[in-house]
Design brief:
Length: 374
């Protein structure tokens, strides 16, 4: 049966077996298999893939182990708090700060599963759909397409379509959703919810903004990395932008960021589930839509900032940037030397004014400290 959301939704059950056949036949299958299942024979893994029939099977038998390998190979720890704020019987819209293209949402799925919750559907930018293999893995992993629009008319049309799909998914389909608080990753450490995202949420229920928010059960999600994902790549992009050069992504640059984020050491990573947002706590007037969207976005930001887990690197960078030792109790001399070595390595990788590069790099780590302190 055809659905109005066929152009953006994840795969339905009948579409999973053909997707598994394409994945198993991919020229990259051996590399992927060896990374995810290093102790298993490739042909054994291929047979397992060919027998998968549902999204749940794909997530449990494959994606769960992708996360296991990422955690084992690149993290010193992975923790959560705030899970008590969630009800397993409720569908939520997780609005997260966005630092890594893949891992922010992927780690959420891993942790939800480990704590007895269903995984969520995940936004999937059309710009990332660069090959059939990536499309198959994504849509079999409960990812739905967010269309990058080229004109205002297309943008409004696609935003309404997305809003309707998300409300349908949460209120009728019975699934939760993960979405980033803004379009694209935070590059400078200043996480901020785009009020346009809140407007998009409400487009499918414009006559009652309070109901529009309440129906979605919005849960702000704070994710904190001890070693910022793709910090050197972000520094380079910000530096070029500051110089007034228009930053143009190279083909497959997003794929490079995904692979860098997966492989790069991350130290300790923490996810914090904030208290759900409800209209009962609003102290602002829903009769002025733009002010309403702005205030909801600000509330989400405050929740995320309050639940950051700040690490030694954040405090070291803040003290280096201010030239003070305000937070010296939160790190050791040895830890500062390690961070300084990372700074020197960054400077070796990027051509440009060293002082400006260092300022940008330190800001990526230091800004969360300022945001949490208000």
């Amino acid at each position: 049966m055809q659905s109005k959301f066929d152009d953006i939704r994840p795969y339905n059950p009948p579409e999973i077996p053909p997707a598994m056949q394409r994945i198993a036949a991919s020229e990259h299958f051996g590399v992927l298999s060896n990374y995810i299942f290093p102790d298993r024979d490739v042909e054994d893994v291929r047979e397992m893939i060919l027998n998968i029939r549902t999204t749940d099977e794909f997530q449990v038998k494959v994606m769960y182990y992708v996360n296991e390998q990422v955690v084992r190979r690149s993290m010193t720890g992975l923790t959560i708090d705030g899970i008590e704020n969630l009800n397993p019987q409720t569908n939520y819209l997780f609005v997260s700060n966005h630092r890594d293209i893949m891992l922010d949402s992927s780690l959420l799925q891993y942790l939800l599963h480990n704590n007895g919750f269903r995984t969520t559907e995940i936004t999937f930018g059309s710009n990332l759909m660069i090959s059939q293999l990536i499309i198959d893995i994504g849509k079999a992993n409960k990812m739905f397409k967010v269309i990058r629009s080229s004109t205002i008319r297309e943008f409004l049309k696609n935003s309404l379509h997305l809003s309707e799909y998300m409300r349908y998914t949460i209120t009728e389909k019975g699934e939760s959703i993960w979405i980033a608080q803004r379009n694209g990753r935070t590059k400078d450490g200043n996480d901020a919810t785009d009020q346009g995202i809140i407007k998009m949420f409400c487009m499918s229920q414009p006559s009652d903004l309070l109901r529009a928010v309440d129906e979605l059960h919005i849960v702000p999600l704070a994710i904190s990395y001890q070693i910022e994902s793709c910090d050197i790549l972000k520094t380079r992009e910000l530096y070029l932008s500051q110089k007034g050069e228009k930053y143009v992504k190279h083909p497959y640059e997003d794929l490079n960021s995904i692979l860098t984020g997966i492989q790069q050491p991350k130290g300790h990573v923490h996810l914090s589930f904030c208290k759900p947002v409800t209209s009962e706590e609003f102290e602002f007037d829903p009769k002025i839509p733009n002010e309403f969207y702005k205030n909801v976005a600000t509330l989400i930001d405050k929740r995320i900032y309050s639940r950051y887990k700040l690490y030694n690197n954040n405090y070291i960078a803040h003290d280096m940037r201010t030239g003070k030792d305000t937070f010296s109790e939160f790190y050791t001399k040895e830890e500062k030397e390690i961070f300084l070595a990372h700074c020197r390595y960054m400077l070796e990788q990027i051509e440009g004014d060293k002082e400006t590069l260092m300022s940008i790099f330190l800001g990526i780590y230091a800004n969360p400290v300022d945001n949490q302190r208000g």
